[in-house]
Design a protein that fits this description.
about 80 residues, 1 helix, mainly beta, single chain, three-stranded parallel β-sheet
Length: about 80
């Protein structure tokens, strides 16, 4: 698979800070999403996130071994 590096793939998470009551970086030790792409991040994605949480995924490659979908009118994910 080829990734077009000329296309913006991420939003600036700081632009959304005022819309959320708190924020987390999924690569922090508490959430343990592997930013190296070696280990799947399914456990971090499946955590019970609190309403009003801005979830930030630093711009790296992540490994996923299954489809993931989480929907809610109160849950937003910024990458």
């Amino acid at each position: 698979m080829s990734i077009d590096t000329d296309v913006a793939t991420a939003l600036d998470p700081s632009a959304y800070e005022n819309r959320f009551s708190n924020g987390v970086d999924v690569t922090d030790d508490s959430y343990n999403a592997d930013p190296s792409g070696e280990e799947p991040i399914g456990d971090a994605l499946s955590m019970p996130w609190e309403d009003g949480t801005r979830i930030v995924f630093p711009q790296v490659e992540y490994k996923m071994i299954q489809e993931f979908r989480r929907s809610s009118t109160k849950t937003r994910i910024a990458s």
